[in-house]
Design brief:
Shape: globular
Structural class: alpha+beta
Number of domains: 2
Helix content: 25-40%
Strand order of the largest sheet: 5-4-3-6
Radius of gyration: 20 Å
CATH architecture of the largest domain: Alpha-Beta Complex
Length: 312
């Protein structure tokens, strides 16, 4: 699978310079060079923009099985809306995305002119604008993690990314059973865990969240390589990334974990400057673990995550 992804000229030059510098050592510095290259890739992701288009290809992640996959929120929110989401896969690709909010009358939020007018006046966007934009973005990107947050509709964008990711996982398994989200339920006590299957820049992600007394009391999100090393404890990676981005995994992982415990809400966790990609991944997985905790489903979530690389 191939598609176009944007990256600025400046970030490309910067990333290339860092990688070349990292590769200048001798054979006994291979491990250090590998960490430097991975760290520079992290920086490149964080500094990407829409100024130049790059061609990307999928190098890992299970293929999507044809069918229609559905997700619904069980309860209406305090404004009288709940999400209904259908995603269609044909010939292994997402061909349709129908994400919207429905009220008790069956009306769609994207058709509500009064809601659109009021929201657009405050945030410069509204459901008639951001809902189609999100749906189109998923079809274009073929990957929930690559759908960008719409300015002025952050909450809806992050909900979309979370639910789209769960539908992608269902499509990889070919499971067309409707996913029900207990969106207003309290968190049930237990330990909830998630792990990605495929390494990106040499690292897979692990996430464990503990709920006690209906509250998130522990969050442990980190990375692991094929040697079993922990990303936040890798000094070479930390040094290289902090030098180029001003922050490294020993800094941003604890910050993100602490924020989730404090905020009790994945959407309220702020992106760490210099670690945008990792922050967005954290928020995506945390939201899915919270959904699991709302159901009390402690089964480990194994994600056959999609990994993209630049076409050389």
């Amino acid at each position: 699978m191939k598609f176009k992804k944007a990256m600025s000229v400046a970030s490309l030059v910067f990333a290339s310079t860092v990688v070349l510098a990292a590769c200048g050592g001798n054979e006994d510095k291979k491990d250090s060079s590998s960490e430097s290259s991975a760290a520079s890739s992290e920086v490149a992701k964080d500094s990407s923009s829409k100024e130049e288009t790059k061609e990307m290809k999928q190098v890992a992640g299970g293929e999507l099985k044809d069918g229609t996959y559905k997700l619904v929120e069980k309860d209406y929110d305090d404004k009288g809306w709940k999400v209904e989401f259908a995603m269609t896969v044909k010939d292994g690709k997402i061909t349709e995305s129908d994400y919207n909010y429905i009220n008790e009358k069956g009306d769609k939020k994207s058709d509500d002119k009064e809601y659109q007018k009021a929201m657009e006046a405050k945030t410069k966007t509204g459901p008639a604008m951001f809902i189609p934009e999100l749906n189109e973005a998923l079809v274009a990107a073929q990957n929930a993690a690559d759908v960008e947050v719409v300015s002025g509709a952050t909450h809806s964008s992050e909900a979309f990314r979370n639910y789209a990711q769960q539908l992608v996982q269902a499509a990889q398994a070919g499971n067309q059973e409707t996913i029900e989200i207990a969106n207003t339920a309290d968190l049930q006590d237990g330990t909830y865990s998630l792990a990605t299957k495929n390494a990106s820049n040499g690292w897979t992600e692990t996430f464990e969240m503990t709920v006690e007394g209906g509250k998130i009391t522990k969050s442990n999100y980190d990375g692991t390589n094929d040697k079993g090393e922990i990303k936040s404890e890798n000094k070479e990676y930390q040094e290289m990334m902090k030098k180029t981005a001003g922050v490294g995994p020993a800094d941003f992982f604890p910050t993100l974990n602490k924020a989730l415990v404090e905020k009790q809400d994945a959407g309220a966790v702020e992106v760490v400057s210099g670690a945008t990609h990792s922050s967005e991944a954290f928020k995506l997985w945390a939201a899915q673990l919270i959904n699991a905790a709302q159901k009390g489903d402690t089964a480990k979530i194994e994600v056959d995550n999609i990994v993209m690389e630049e076409v050389k």
